[in-house]
Amino acid sequence: MSEIKVNSVKGVGASTAAITINNSDGTCTANVSNNLGNKNFIINGGHEVAQRGTADVVVTSTVGYRCIDRFKTDIDGSGVTGRWSHGQSTDVPANLGFRNSSKITTTTVQSQPSGSDVNNQLYYMMEKQDVTVLRWGSANAKPCTLSFYVKGSVTGTYALWLQWYGSSDNYFYYTSYTINTANTWERKTITITGPTSGGQSATDPQNTGLRIEWGLGYGSDLETGTLNEWTTSDVKRAPAGHVYLPEHAGATWFLTGCQFEMSPVATEFERCPYYKALEYCQRYYQRHDFVSDGAFMGALMGFYNTDTEIRVFYDCRVIMRATPTLEYSSLGDFDVEPRDRPISNLSIDRANERQICLKSTSLTDDNGKGEAACLTIDQSGGFIAFNAEL
Asked: Which of 1, 331, 343, 377 is the least buried, fewest Cβ under 10 Å from its Cβ?
């Protein structure tokens, strides 16, 4: 027997094939390692992209993306605001090539409640059309592995679960992982056999197909039920005695190197250039911030539709997931050039996934219909953004 190693390139990554040749009969056996490009279904798994900012943001009962792109947070229940924050950190596993992580910090201590409606959670959501290849919900369901690096000041067992979406037949998989040593980076791997039913009913391919949730603490009433099985029950299941992070003053929990791949084993984290990770994130969110000279990336150009109303246009950097909604800091952060006029409103006039027309009213009427106009951000902290998040 002899072995030949062959390197080949596909997508953005390379594969190494070990070819074993049987010298007696000339037959060959090739084993290809699973490190081809685009194997990771999680965008921004290295937590580098944070278009909304890197600072800690206190999490409330309103669900949303607060810091790291593609990683969503919220707290279910009443009177829950201010238990913990989410920010970007440079604390990462040593010598593994990571630059950033998500950091969760307890800000207000709260003892673990008994109610089942209290959930502290950070989660990631994937489009249905991106996970159809898993063949979940059929007899040909593929095994998949979730891997990630985690560091926590509180040791113990943590809840984690997945939801496989259908329009009327959602399936859930409740599981757990353990932080063994406090304040030490550890890699966790969870291999999941895909469900052979559910999630196949008609649903918009651009809507959510799979959700992965890292639980940061649930009510004690949820510490029941069987783990590591697929179920149609949406009542969360947490391991008995699981960590409820908000009851620990000043507790911290870090996450990075998140990878979900179609494989029965975890492979090395797939690297993605920053510019490409940003481009992937901009399918869901595109933001423009004030720069020192007040220019809005060369400004949004347009014209006066009337003596006071302007129309300006934006070509999306990448095609967005859906027609976006508009977000902006404050009307006082904008003005209309060339006469440096303030505005009294700002809204989307018409839009699709590729192009957006905004309209705004200038606070003066000494302009002429058809004259050129451009919208600029001229105040520090000002921003405008287009949101098509899941």
From this structure: 1
CB-based contacts of 366: which residues, under 8 Å, 6+ apart? 307, 339
Query: How far apart, in whole angstroms, are the C-alpha atoms of residue 213 and residue 156?
Result: 17
Q: Classify the phi-psi angles of 28: left when phi > 0, otherwise alpha if psi is within -120 to 50, otherwise beta.
A: beta
- Report H helices in 147-289: 274-281
Place of tokens 């390197």: 7
Q: Which residue has the tokens 């299941």?
A: 237
Beta bridge partners of 301: 374
Q: List, edge to edge, every strand of the sheet that includes 156-164.
A: 71-76, 119-127, 208-218, 156-164, 171-179, 230-231
State the Cα–Cα distance between residues 362 and 373, nearest whole angstrom. Answer: 10
Q: Which of 388, 379, 343, 387 is nearest to 363 (CA)?
A: 343
What are the pLDDT digits (tens) for 22-46?
A: 666 665 554 444 455 789 999 999 9
CB 285 within 8 A of CB 389: yes
E strand or H helix that includes residue 300:
strand 300-304
What lies within 8 Å, CB to CB, of 337 at 6+ separation is 299, 373, 374, 375, 376
Return d(Cα 341, Cα 274) in angstroms, integer: 37
Residue 364 confidence (pLDDT): 74
Could you read off the pLDDT of 43-59 as tens digits, one per residue? 999 999 999 999 999 99
CA dihedral 248, 251, 256, 261 (to 10 degrees): -10
Q: For residue 276, what is the DSSP state?
A: H
